[in-house]
Automatic annotation (TrEMBL):
The keyword Lipid biosynthesis does not apply. It comes from Vibrio eleionomae. The keyword Signal applies. This is Acid phosphatase. It comes from the Bacteria. The lineage of its organism: Bacteria, Pseudomonadati, Pseudomonadota, Gammaproteobacteria, Vibrionales.
Length: 290
């Protein structure tokens, strides 16, 4: 039998140590997730791994392409008719899109929250954005480039903060998004004093100079500031029936959004357990007769 030399022993010891540390890290992550069950789990698993989600999103971009074609050739077509100036039919066409979970896919950040047993924080979110590792939604880059070729300017109206704008811009350019057509097409939260998390002022900024033929988003707030309780949200949804699927395209996002906070009155000061209890209470459930 060959006597093991010192370098071989060292390599073996290093490999064993590495394996042990890796196993320990996995155990820590598993214990963190088990100790802090996260409501993001199934939603993130579906959005990250399922072909059903990818097919759904790609289908929405196919619909958006068809609707953009229709809107491009109909000068009376507008997704924001109340905001458009007189004679808006002569304005150049534009599309307003949200970024996160509409054009950009942040499932790796959500997976980090689950595996680390942590909740969302602006600090870790900013670190993630600055790392510029965000991916593109299936079909998003292709849709954006289609619009550019048709002479349609896409405005990315996002609630990513002003301080993260440059990193977001670089990330999106690297993914192949056309960030052209106007001096500034990435409109971030806080970029101007009145550009708050409510997007109306930014929508008005675009609508004053462009005919907005289409809007894409994953949250009610991407289309209208009217929100509130679940009952009020339902009323807003019903009041805008003519828009859905025509010039307002809603993307699927079961991970987060105003649908969740509406269930507990937007009171984020409640503990995770209290918020979960309120969400469960908001569910309408079938009950067996016996």
């Amino acid at each position: 039998m060959e006597t093991m030399t010192l370098p071989k022993r060292t390599l073996l010891s290093t490999a064993l140590l590495s394996t042990t540390l890796c196993s320990a890290a996995m155990a820590v992550n598993a214990n963190a997730a088990e100790a802090n069950p996260n409501d993001l789990l199934n939603a993130t698993l579906w959005m990250q791994n399922s072909v059903e989600y990818k097919a759904n999103v790609q289908g929405m971009f196919q619909l958006a392409t068809m609707r953009a074609e229709a809107g491009l050739h109909d000068k009376n077509w507008s997704a924001l008719p109340a905001m458009q100036p007189e004679g808006f039919g002569q304005l150049p066409p534009a599309i307003i899109v949200d970024c996160d979970e509409t054009m950009l896919d942040n499932n790796v950040y959500e997976a980090y929250l689950i595996k680390s047993g942590k909740g969302y924080s602006s600090k870790t979110w900013s670190q993630y954005v600055q790392d510029k590792v965000t991916g593109a939604m299936p079909g998003a880059v292709e849709f954006a480039n289609y619009a550019q070729k048709k002479g349609i300017t896409i405005f990315y109206v996002t609630n990513r903060k002003k301080e993260n704008e440059q990193a977001t811009l670089e990330n999106m350019k690297a993914l192949g998004f056309p960030m052209t057509g106007a001096k500034d097409v990435l409109l971030t939260k806080g970029e101007k004093p009145d550009w708050t998390s409510n997007k109306t002022t930014r929508d008005q900024f675009v609508a004053a100079h462009y005919r907005v033929i289409l809007m894409l988003g994953d949250n009610l707030g991407d289309f209208t500031d009217a929100s509130g309780t679940p009952k009020e949200r339902l009323a807003t949804y019903k009041a805008n029936q003519a828009h859905w699927g025509k010039d307002w395209i809603m993307m699927p996002n079961p991970e987060y959004g105003s649908f969740e906070s509406a269930a507990f009155g937007g009171n984020w000061s409640l503990s995770t357990e209290q918020r979960r209890a309120e969400k469960i209470s908001a569910l309408k459930a079938w009950q067996p007769k016996s």
